[in-house]
């Protein structure tokens, strides 16, 4: 009878060991699946962070571009006024009035400079169709001046590398 009890308890132990082994295997399977899911979620978070960083960079670039477009739109509308002020300065007889208009002109140019707007160098420069718009040519005796800007009819302006208005010029031929 002692052998039967011992055998029965050995069978019970074996059943319990087998049951525990199955539970362990199930737990390992669940753990593997959860680890895989955790890695997928971690990868998803990394991708979402990268996507968000890219979105933020694109958005900042777009905002910068929109700001520049707005500045260019305003300056394009302001340039004819600036041109007319320059003409008015030449026509004004009263020196004090002319000096006052010159001050206003300089202030407008300074404000444009604060926004990165600069005058395109033209007079005495080599003609560049990317910066200058030649409306006439004049013959010159000095061959070293060929294809040089000899007169600026209308100033050109740019913002960085972006041309807002080409300089209207006369070129030597």
Descriptive report:
The chain is an alpha+beta fold and 173 residues long. It has helices at 2-91, 95-114, and strands at 117-119, 132-138, 149-154, 157-159, 162-165, 167-172. A three-stranded antiparallel sheet has the order 1-4-5. Strands 2-6-3 form a three-stranded mixed sheet, with no helix packed on it. A hairpin with a 2-residue loop joins strand 4 (157-159) and strand 5 (162-165). Helix 1 runs antiparallel to helix 2 (95-114). It starts with a helix and ends with a strand. The model has no long low-confidence stretch (mean pLDDT 92).
Spatial sequence of strands, sheet with the most strands: 1-4-5
- So what's the overall shape? rod-shaped
Give the N-to-C terminal Cα separation: 127 Å
Q: Main β-sheet: number of strands, strand sense, barrel status? A: 3 strands, antiparallel
- Approximately how much beta-strand content do the residues carry? 15-25%
Mean pLDDT: 92
Give me the Rg, rounded. 40 Å
Question: Briefly, what is this?
Answer:
This protein has two helices and six strands; from the N terminus they run ααββββββ. It is an alpha+beta fold and 173 residues long. The strands form two sheets. The chain has a three-stranded antiparallel beta sheet with strand order 1-4-5. Strands 2-6-3 form a three-stranded mixed beta sheet, with no helix packed on it.
SSE topology:
Layout: H1 2-91, H2 95-114, E1 117-119, E2 132-138, E3 149-154, E4 157-159, E5 162-165, E6 167-172
Parallel strand pairs: 2-6
Antiparallel strand pairs: 1-4, 3-6, 4-5
Helix pairs in contact: 1-2
């Amino acid at each position: 009878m002692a052998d039967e009890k011992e055998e029965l308890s050995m069978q019970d132990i074996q059943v319990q060991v087998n049951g525990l082994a199955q539970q362990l295997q199930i737990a390992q399977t669940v753990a593997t699946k959860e680890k895989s899911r955790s890695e997928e979620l971690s990868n998803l978070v990394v991708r979402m962070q990268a996507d968000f960083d890219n979105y933020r960079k694109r958005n900042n670039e777009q905002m910068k571009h929109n700001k520049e477009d707005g500045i260019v739109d305003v300056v394009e509308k302001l340039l004819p006024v600036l041109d007319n002020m320059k003409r008015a300065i030449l026509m004004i007889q009263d020196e004090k009035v002319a000096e006052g208009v010159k001050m206003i002109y300089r202030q407008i140019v300074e404000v444009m400079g604060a926004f990165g707007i600069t005058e395109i160098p033209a007079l005495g420069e080599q003609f560049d169709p990317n910066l200058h718009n030649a409306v006439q040519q004049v013959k010159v005796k000095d061959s070293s001046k060929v294809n040089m800007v000899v007169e600026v009819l209308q100033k050109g302006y740019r913002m960085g590398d972006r041309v807002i208005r080409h300089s209207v010029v006369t070129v030597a031929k």
